Amino acid sequence: MAPLALAAGLASAFALVARPAPEGTLTEAHAWMITAFGAGNAGGSALAGTLADLASPAAAFVSTALSATIAVCLSSRPHPVHVPSDPR
Question: How many domains does one find in the chain?
C-alpha cells in the first residue's frame, strides 16, 4: 500500500518546494530536494544496516521510528515563504 501514496507525496513535495523558490531558481530548488532525499536514504540505510549487524534488528527499527519522529517535528514548524516583490 505504501507505493500508492508515493506519487502523490512526491508531487506535493515538489509543489511545496516550488512555492518559496525565487523566480529563476526552481530547477536548483528541486535539485536540492532530490539531493536531500538521496542523502537521507543513504544515511538511513547505512545507520539501519549497521545497527542491525552490530546490535539487533529491533535497534534498527527503533532508530527508524526515532528518525521519522525527528523529521516530522522539524518539518512541522512554520517556515518563511518568499513573496516576490511587485515589479511595478
Answer: 1
